[in-house]
Amino acid sequence: MKILLVEDSVRLQRSLSAGLKRHGFSVDQAFDGEQALTYIRHNQYDTIILDLVLPKIDGLNVLSTMRNEGKNNQVLILSANDQTEDRIRGLDLGADDYMVKPFSFDELVSRLRALNRRHSGIKNPVLDISGVKIDTVSRLVRFNERVVNLTPHEFKLLDYLAHRRGRVFSHDQLIDQLYDAASYVTRNAVEAHISSLRKRLKASGAPGLVKTRRGFGYLVE
Known about the structure:
By secondary structure, the chain is an alpha/beta fold. It has 8 helices and 11 strands.
Protein backbone atom coordinates (compact mmCIF):
# COMPACT_ATOMS: atom_id res chain seq x y z
CA MET A 1 0.00 0.00 0.00
CA LYS A 2 1.55 3.29 -1.10
CA ILE A 3 0.89 6.35 1.03
CA LEU A 4 1.54 10.06 0.67
CA LEU A 5 2.04 11.60 4.12
CA VAL A 6 1.27 15.33 4.06
CA GLU A 7 2.42 16.92 7.31
CA ASP A 8 4.49 20.05 7.98
CA SER A 9 5.93 18.86 11.31
CA VAL A 10 9.33 17.32 10.57
CA ARG A 11 9.30 15.45 13.87
CA LEU A 12 5.86 13.91 13.27
CA GLN A 13 6.75 13.16 9.65
CA ARG A 14 9.85 11.28 10.74
CA SER A 15 8.14 9.19 13.41
CA LEU A 16 5.01 8.44 11.36
CA SER A 17 6.96 7.55 8.23
CA ALA A 18 9.26 5.20 10.14
CA GLY A 19 6.34 3.52 11.90
CA LEU A 20 4.31 3.06 8.72
CA LYS A 21 7.29 1.57 6.90
CA ARG A 22 7.76 -0.93 9.73
CA HIS A 23 4.18 -2.04 9.07
CA GLY A 24 4.90 -2.61 5.40
CA PHE A 25 3.60 0.63 3.90
CA SER A 26 5.49 2.53 1.22
CA VAL A 27 5.61 6.22 2.18
CA ASP A 28 6.36 9.44 0.29
CA GLN A 29 6.50 12.69 2.27
CA ALA A 30 5.20 16.19 1.49
CA PHE A 31 5.67 19.10 3.88
CA ASP A 32 3.29 21.67 2.39
CA GLY A 33 0.14 21.78 0.27
CA GLU A 34 1.89 22.84 -2.92
CA GLN A 35 4.35 19.95 -2.72
CA ALA A 36 1.48 17.58 -1.93
CA LEU A 37 -0.42 18.52 -5.10
CA THR A 38 2.74 18.05 -7.19
CA TYR A 39 3.20 14.54 -5.79
CA ILE A 40 -0.49 13.69 -6.28
CA ARG A 41 -0.43 14.84 -9.91
CA HIS A 42 2.66 12.83 -10.82
CA ASN A 43 2.35 9.66 -8.72
CA GLN A 44 -0.17 6.98 -7.84
CA TYR A 45 -1.10 6.61 -4.16
CA ASP A 46 -3.55 4.27 -2.49
CA THR A 47 -4.12 6.66 0.40
CA ILE A 48 -3.16 10.22 1.32
CA ILE A 49 -2.78 11.11 5.00
CA LEU A 50 -3.55 14.82 5.03
CA ASP A 51 -3.02 17.44 7.72
CA LEU A 52 -5.24 20.51 7.41
CA VAL A 53 -2.94 23.26 8.69
CA LEU A 54 -0.23 23.39 6.02
CA PRO A 55 2.09 26.05 4.56
CA LYS A 56 1.35 27.51 1.09
CA ILE A 57 -1.94 25.65 0.49
CA ASP A 58 -4.06 24.38 3.38
CA GLY A 59 -5.28 20.80 3.55
CA LEU A 60 -8.91 21.48 2.67
CA ASN A 61 -7.85 23.33 -0.49
CA VAL A 62 -5.52 20.44 -1.37
CA LEU A 63 -8.45 18.05 -0.96
CA SER A 64 -10.85 20.24 -2.94
CA THR A 65 -8.32 20.76 -5.75
CA MET A 66 -7.47 17.08 -6.15
CA ARG A 67 -11.15 16.08 -6.20
CA ASN A 68 -11.90 18.79 -8.78
CA GLU A 69 -9.06 17.39 -10.89
CA GLY A 70 -10.63 13.95 -10.78
CA LYS A 71 -8.16 12.38 -8.35
CA ASN A 72 -9.92 9.60 -6.47
CA ASN A 73 -7.17 8.60 -4.02
CA GLN A 74 -8.43 7.65 -0.59
CA VAL A 75 -7.87 10.50 1.87
CA LEU A 76 -7.54 10.21 5.62
CA ILE A 77 -7.46 13.61 7.32
CA LEU A 78 -5.19 13.69 10.37
CA SER A 79 -5.67 17.01 12.12
CA ALA A 80 -5.68 18.78 15.48
CA ASN A 81 -8.94 20.46 14.40
CA ASP A 82 -11.47 18.55 16.47
CA GLN A 83 -14.62 20.59 15.89
CA THR A 84 -17.60 18.79 14.39
CA GLU A 85 -17.80 21.45 11.67
CA ASP A 86 -14.22 20.70 10.59
CA ARG A 87 -14.97 16.99 10.30
CA ILE A 88 -18.16 17.59 8.35
CA ARG A 89 -16.45 19.95 5.92
CA GLY A 90 -13.55 17.56 5.34
CA LEU A 91 -15.84 14.60 4.72
CA ASP A 92 -18.14 16.67 2.49
CA LEU A 93 -15.15 17.71 0.37
CA GLY A 94 -14.36 14.07 -0.28
CA ALA A 95 -12.25 12.74 2.59
CA ASP A 96 -12.78 9.05 3.37
CA ASP A 97 -11.89 9.22 7.06
CA TYR A 98 -10.97 11.77 9.72
CA MET A 99 -8.76 11.31 12.79
CA VAL A 100 -7.99 13.89 15.45
CA LYS A 101 -4.56 14.54 16.95
CA PRO A 102 -3.35 13.29 19.37
CA PHE A 103 -4.11 9.83 18.05
CA SER A 104 -3.28 6.17 18.52
CA PHE A 105 -0.76 4.97 15.95
CA ASP A 106 -2.21 1.45 16.08
CA GLU A 107 -5.66 2.87 15.31
CA LEU A 108 -4.23 4.82 12.37
CA VAL A 109 -2.71 1.63 10.93
CA SER A 110 -5.99 -0.21 11.45
CA ARG A 111 -7.95 2.52 9.67
CA LEU A 112 -5.52 2.55 6.76
CA ARG A 113 -5.92 -1.19 6.33
CA ALA A 114 -9.70 -0.88 6.58
CA LEU A 115 -9.67 1.79 3.86
CA ASN A 116 -7.58 -0.47 1.66
CA ARG A 117 -9.97 -3.40 2.16
CA ARG A 118 -12.95 -1.18 1.41
CA HIS A 119 -11.30 0.11 -1.76
CA SER A 120 -10.42 -3.39 -2.96
CA GLY A 121 -13.89 -4.71 -2.09
CA ILE A 122 -12.46 -7.26 0.36
CA LYS A 123 -13.79 -6.95 3.91
CA ASN A 124 -12.04 -9.91 5.51
CA PRO A 125 -8.46 -9.07 6.58
CA VAL A 126 -7.47 -12.67 5.73
CA LEU A 127 -7.51 -13.35 2.00
CA ASP A 128 -7.69 -17.04 1.01
CA ILE A 129 -6.55 -18.01 -2.49
CA SER A 130 -6.30 -21.73 -3.24
CA GLY A 131 -5.64 -22.45 0.43
CA VAL A 132 -2.94 -19.79 0.77
CA LYS A 133 -4.10 -17.45 3.54
CA ILE A 134 -2.71 -13.91 3.48
CA ASP A 135 -3.30 -12.02 6.73
CA THR A 136 -2.92 -8.27 6.22
CA VAL A 137 -3.04 -7.56 9.97
CA SER A 138 -0.42 -10.02 11.24
CA ARG A 139 1.42 -9.83 7.88
CA LEU A 140 1.69 -13.61 7.84
CA VAL A 141 1.06 -16.12 5.07
CA ARG A 142 -0.13 -19.63 5.91
CA PHE A 143 -0.72 -22.79 3.92
CA ASN A 144 -2.24 -25.86 5.58
CA GLU A 145 -2.08 -23.92 8.86
CA ARG A 146 1.70 -23.63 8.59
CA VAL A 147 3.42 -20.26 8.30
CA VAL A 148 5.22 -19.56 5.03
CA ASN A 149 8.23 -17.47 6.03
CA LEU A 150 8.46 -14.49 3.69
CA THR A 151 10.65 -11.42 3.76
CA PRO A 152 8.91 -8.01 3.99
CA HIS A 153 9.54 -7.45 0.25
CA GLU A 154 8.07 -10.83 -0.66
CA PHE A 155 5.00 -10.30 1.51
CA LYS A 156 4.47 -6.84 0.05
CA LEU A 157 4.51 -8.22 -3.50
CA LEU A 158 2.20 -11.14 -2.75
CA ASP A 159 -0.24 -9.00 -0.76
CA TYR A 160 -0.42 -6.34 -3.48
CA LEU A 161 -0.96 -8.79 -6.35
CA ALA A 162 -3.40 -10.99 -4.41
CA HIS A 163 -5.63 -8.04 -3.53
CA ARG A 164 -5.71 -7.09 -7.22
CA ARG A 165 -6.31 -10.59 -8.45
CA GLY A 166 -6.45 -10.97 -12.22
CA ARG A 167 -4.70 -7.67 -12.97
CA VAL A 168 -1.28 -7.66 -14.63
CA PHE A 169 1.41 -5.32 -13.30
CA SER A 170 4.68 -4.52 -15.03
CA HIS A 171 8.00 -4.17 -13.23
CA ASP A 172 7.72 -0.38 -13.37
CA GLN A 173 4.18 -0.39 -11.98
CA LEU A 174 5.20 -2.61 -9.07
CA ILE A 175 8.19 -0.40 -8.29
CA ASP A 176 6.00 2.71 -8.43
CA GLN A 177 3.27 1.24 -6.21
CA LEU A 178 5.31 -0.66 -3.64
CA TYR A 179 8.33 1.52 -2.98
CA ASP A 180 8.72 5.13 -1.94
CA ALA A 181 10.51 7.77 -3.96
CA ALA A 182 13.62 7.57 -1.76
CA SER A 183 14.11 3.87 -2.49
CA TYR A 184 16.22 2.72 -5.41
CA VAL A 185 14.68 -0.52 -6.63
CA THR A 186 15.62 -2.00 -9.99
CA ARG A 187 13.80 -4.30 -12.38
CA ASN A 188 16.30 -7.03 -11.47
CA ALA A 189 15.46 -6.61 -7.78
CA VAL A 190 11.74 -7.10 -8.47
CA GLU A 191 12.50 -10.23 -10.49
CA ALA A 192 14.67 -11.56 -7.66
CA HIS A 193 11.92 -10.96 -5.07
CA ILE A 194 9.33 -12.67 -7.30
CA SER A 195 11.64 -15.65 -7.84
CA SER A 196 12.33 -15.98 -4.12
CA LEU A 197 8.62 -15.66 -3.30
CA ARG A 198 7.77 -18.48 -5.70
CA LYS A 199 10.47 -20.72 -4.22
CA ARG A 200 9.23 -20.17 -0.67
CA LEU A 201 5.63 -20.93 -1.65
CA LYS A 202 6.72 -24.05 -3.52
CA ALA A 203 8.85 -25.25 -0.60
CA SER A 204 5.80 -25.04 1.67
CA GLY A 205 3.73 -27.10 -0.75
CA ALA A 206 1.57 -24.13 -1.69
CA PRO A 207 0.38 -23.57 -5.27
CA GLY A 208 2.32 -21.16 -7.44
CA LEU A 209 0.08 -18.13 -7.17
CA VAL A 210 2.25 -15.57 -8.95
CA LYS A 211 2.13 -15.99 -12.72
CA THR A 212 4.12 -14.29 -15.48
CA ARG A 213 2.54 -12.78 -18.56
CA ARG A 214 5.59 -12.66 -20.76
CA GLY A 215 6.20 -9.17 -22.07
CA PHE A 216 3.57 -7.67 -19.75
CA GLY A 217 4.30 -8.47 -16.11
CA TYR A 218 3.01 -10.44 -13.15
CA LEU A 219 -0.36 -11.34 -11.67
CA VAL A 220 -2.14 -13.59 -9.22
CA GLU A 221 -4.85 -15.51 -11.09
